[in-house]
Amino acid sequence: MWVWFHKFGSPRYFYDFAGRCIPWLGAACALLMAVGLYLGLFVAPPDYQQGESYRIIFIHVPSAWMSMFVYVVMASSGAVVLIWRVKLAEIIASVSAPLGASFTFLALATGSLWGKPMWGTWWVWDARLTSELILLFLYFGFMALEAAIEDKRTAARATAILSLVGVINIPIIHYSVYWWNTLHQGATVTKMDTPSIHLSMLVPLLLMAVAFQLYYATVLLIGTRTELLSRERRTRWVAEVIRNS
Amino acid sequence: MSAQEFFHMGGYALYVWPAYALSLVVLTGQLWAALRRRRKLIRDIEVQNRSPETHT
Amino acid sequence: MEPSTLTALWALMRRDLTLAYRHRSELLNPLLFFVIVVSLFPLGISPEAKTLQTVAPGVVWVAALLANLLSLDLMFRTDFEDGTLERFLLSPHPLPLLVLAKTAAHWIVVALPMIVFAPVLGQLMFLRPDAYWALLATLILGTPVLSLIGGIGMGLTVGLRRGGVLLSLLILPLYVPVLIFGATAVDAAGAGLDVSGHLSFLGALLLLAITLAPLATSAALRVSLS
Fold first, then answer.
1. B20 lies in a domain?
2. pTM tops 0.80, yes or no
């Protein structure tokens, strides 16, 4: 098992392995998205209360899930960076940050677009949206700290600490914001949490969630390979790769 | 559902379609940016390898 | 003979407090900032007692939070600049404990005056009479958490040239739980409701921060000074 783990730490091995994975991941992503969107937009019936506007959840919910998932990946990579100083983990954390921020932004934007016909305003300090907004700040903080430190390895360790502190705080922030929101419930009742979701809506939702995961994996691997080439540009294996490409 | 009904989205077209369009833009944008960065890096390394070895 | 860790911590605290006292003209700055920020709200919103009373808990808390944030520089900046910080890293005593001692000194210098002065600001904002004790209780429990979390941010940015604004971006999201529970506790107390739950939560945050934050700050300092 440790041999396997050690193999993945090797830039060259990972580069080749990832290169073989990407087409499959990309194809699976495209397929699932096509099926998911078809089922979500054409087959699933309109919602009893929200009509057709609920169809935004097929983007909103997967984005929100991914925004959290990617941060956990970053924090886990951060732990690996701090404990074992694995360069690959440094790269994964760094490449993931803008992706995670994009998911968070999409969750906020689609949430806002979903909410406008419901609440009448473009923004509401609802628990989920407020939590996502704070998460966006955490992502920006990560990227800003990374940009402020010149040496890549130092930056990786600093942002690793930040992401670990963040990941511990996220449940606390989440809980605090939800609790805060319930205190002022009268003003806005969020219709975002459907108590029981119909199967015809659940299936496309789950398909889209998996599709988003595959998308993240695909773009992450592409970015990681690029960064690997950059960091190892003076080695022979990179020269060989360049010659063959 | 007719094509017209589909695009109309029960009156919510103004919200649903921009949501999907924005997602499309962001997701394809990130993908395209990643591919572009890769291509640029490969070009840069090629140039660097071709030119005579400069002091690191 | 090597001094015991406890002696070292006490000496460190005394040193920081002495240094702060030597620059006592600057000591007032966080407090003045606190007062000025609170004063801005009536000017920006309305002088009406009813309006101000509604926002008083939040305003006082946000002002305290910002005053604490802006004074974080005091924690490590001068030590970093004159090389003392590097010597801390080489010390035989555990760095997290040294950090804890410095944070405690920082809290005494910055937060304690604010806590003492807070009731006066409560008056300015027409804070409800039942809320005063809650204001003090939440500040006493919450401001150490702010200093401890702030220490992490300071550890990460102390070596950076324009770390000030970055520090705010990093730290403010982490301050949110303290703000939420602190401000709503004061608000609830003003309405005569029970706030033992809020205070328990703040107490829990404090314990969590005391145990974990110095570890993170030490790690951050080691990275910054590497």
1. yes
2. yes
